[in-house]
Design goal:
Layout (H helix, E strand, L loop, with lengths): L2 H19 L2 H14 L3 H26 L3 H8 L3 H32 L3 H17 L3 H27 L3 H9 L6 H12 L3 H11 L8 H30 L10 H39 L6 H5 L1 H19 L3 H26 L2 H4 L7 H26 L1
Keywords: Membrane, Transmembrane, Transmembrane helix
Pfam families: Nramp
Subcellular location: Membrane
């Protein structure tokens, strides 16, 4: 593989993770927590970025060095564990994808006035068309790059229009007046939880960027992925803060959409339609691709029918949306559930990182990275259990 091809694969993997993370749930979570925490949400974002980078560096390194997908590594760590991990990932991916399809439908409704269910069906056909293309991987890579850059530009415009209190943000990011652990759990789950944890690393494996010689490539791609997602999260946070800091309440039924409308009027509402559809359709593609990547190596027949499985995954998501809809609370809950998956997934990768039978004898996983990874597993497990207990109380 030449240097240009490797570089393109690294960038594509980073955008796959970022755009997979930035779905309708991402937009909703950011708006809801900004309204609750105001400028203190900046601290939550900062902590989330640190946890995300540590998790991704550990996971991507092990997958790239071992040249195996996460479910196969988990089965090597403990027989049968890979099937459990695959089941959790696919279930979480499906839950998120229902919201993604719904978001795509709502985006088209805003832009064209079509019924959201019809818009969801149109978006479904477009996503399926990408995977039916002759060069599906190339089409997917280009789509997510274009949509990712478009979203950043549009959200920047709304943040500029909303005029957020930047001084308060800087102060509260390092010295928060309040801390919400549930928000940290939800954001980590929405950014690197569930299927998103492995999206970029699996894409690198499929693109042939694997082996000991590509460890640095994995590091660059992982950090870039979190950087891109964090830029989008931060800019959206600033846009929302500029609105709520002036005492304006967000629409509980559509908190993210009301940020755009209040900040920029009907133009902002139209911009939100574009952002929502871009976020949704790119997440549909990412969720379907990564979820199926957890199934295809479990049996030879599944590998031979990879594209059919992806298409079926998208169709099931669309059919489910037409039956149950998309409550805001479901999207936030899905992020929290995927956050609970992260301690298991990262824990398995940390064990694998120190097994020569998996990573080979030439590779030495950095001790500092292992230590930080253990800290993330412990903290996310604690936050997850605490949040569940608080919810039951």
């Amino acid at each position: 593989m030449n240097r240009r091809t490797t570089r393109n694969s690294i960038v594509a993997a980073a955008f796959l993770v970022a755009t997979s993370a930035v779905g309708p749930g991402f937009l909703t979570q950011t708006a809801v927590f900004t309204e609750q925490l105001l400028a203190s949400f900046g601290f939550v974002i900062l902590v989330t970025i640190i946890l995300d980078i540590i998790a991704q560096l550990n996971i991507w390194r092990v997958i790239v060095v071992s040249q195996r997908r996460a479910q196969d590594i988990a089965n090597d760590v403990f027989p049968g564990l890979g099937y459990i991990l695959a089941g959790l990932i696919v279930f979480g991916g499906l839950a998120f994808n229902i919201g993604n399809i719904a978001g795509a439908g709502l985006g088209i409704e805003i832009l064209t006035g079509l019924d959201p269910r019809l818009g969801a069906a149109v978006s479904c056909l477009l996503a399926i068309g990408i995977f039916m293309a002759r060069h599906a991987a190339v089409a997917m890579d280009w789509l997510i790059k274009i949509l990712g850059m478009l979203m950043i530009g549009l959200i920047l415009y709304v943040a500029w229009k909303s005029n957020p209190p930047l001084g308060d943000v800087l102060r509260e990011t390092v010295m928060p007046s309040r801390i919400n652990f549930h928000a940290i759990l939800t954001l980590v789950g929405g950014t690197v939880g569930g299927y998103i944890t492995f999206a970029g690393a699996h894409r690198l494996i499929d693109a042939g960027v694997k082996g000991l010689s590509h460890v640095k490539s994995a590091d660059r791609s992982a950090v870039s992925a979190i950087g891109l997602a964090s830029v989008m999260r931060t800019v959206l946070f600033l846009a929302a803060l500029g609105v709520v800091a002036h005492g304006v309440a967000l629409d509980a039924a559509n908190p993210a959409g009301s940020v755009f409308r209040i900040a920029s009027g009907e133009i902002g509402h139209f911009v939100f339609g574009i952002v929502l559809w871009c976020a949704a359709i790119s997440s549909v593609v990412g969720a379907a691709y990564t979820s199926v990547s957890f199934l295809k190596s479990l049996h030879p027949k599944l590998l031979r029918h990879e594209h059919r499985l992806i298409i079926g995954f998208i169709l099931v998501s669309t059919a489910t949306f037409t039956a149950i809809g998309k409550p805001v609370q479901v999207l936030i809950f899905a992020g929290a559930v995927n956050g609970l998956i992260l301690p298991l997934a990262l824990g398995v990768m940390l064990i694998a990182a120190n097994k020569h039978a998996i990573v080979g004898t030439a590779y030495r996983h950095p001790r500092w990275l292992t230590a930080l990874g253990i800290a993330v597993v412990a903290s996310m497990a604690y936050i997850g259990v605490a949040s569940v207990l608080a919810g039951l109380a």
